[in-house]
Request: fold
Amino acid sequence: MRKVFYGILLVAFMVSLFGCCYGDAKRAIADAEAAVDQTVAKGTITNAPYETASAKAYLGGANEVVGDCDWCKALAWANKAKNMADAALAAPPRAVSPCLAMMD
Amino acid sequence: MKGKVLVAIMAAAALALLVGCGGVTSGPSYDALNAAKADFEKATAMGMKECTPVEYAIAEAELEFAEHHLNELKIDRFKDHLAKANEMIGEGVDKLKLCKVIYFDFDKYAIRPVYYPVLYHMAETMLKYDDVNVEVQGHTCSIGTEKYNCWLGQKRADAVKDVLVLYEVPAERLTTVSWGEYMPAESNATEAGRIKNRRVEFEIIYK
Reply:
């Protein structure tokens, strides 16, 4: 009986420690990785350099803390990476000078 | 008895942990982190985010990582991230030399002698960092036709590019564009504003 009690206690402890973020962090990192790959494919570094670089940096940070089993921080940084990558993908292209048309 | 001792030890350990962790907000590591944050703020005030957004973004993230690892008492990783943040701040500040403004006399595209040292330092910086290209953007005031100002803006940009190439920057790392009178820095209503509009600006293009 006592073993069952301690077992439940241990499971509850593990769930409280990791359960709240574990699955979400894994998913968020996968989503962020896909979004960052898209920024590379679309070359957003030229029209949205801040967002593109920030996305890549925070994805790196998220992957690093996953190694520490710091799931909640990994989730936070992966979400930040995804948001930055989405902003980069949504950024308008670089402005084109009206002179280009005028000088042709 | 045994149970009470165990509880007392656990309470003492918890208390030590609380006080210990809560108390780690000063010391050489925190001083180093705060110094880096102060440098980052100074660099931001100097226009690092606008001129060198990639270095700014990486430095910003690395400072956050460094602080996290310091709070987690992972000192080696704190040091790695702090070093990376400091490297990015240094590189960003150095690359600010690529975001100068060159002013021109009215209806002229000859470069004033005072700007040759500025362009020399720009060329030096470009040769130091081969991860960036630069777009040279020529601008004019609103006096004259739009078409003429497009031509003049291009001549200004080309003149600046020629000097940078003379200082050994590979031509393929420099692109030029004329904005003519379409992107004034100041109002064209006053001569003081028009003086500020006769210019060449630079934009870093990340590879």
Summary: The first helix of chain A runs from residue 2 to 19. The helical segments of chain A are 2-19, 22-42, 49-66, 71-90, 98-103. The CA atoms of residues 55 and 81 of chain A lie 4 Å apart. Chain A is about 80% helix and 0% strand.
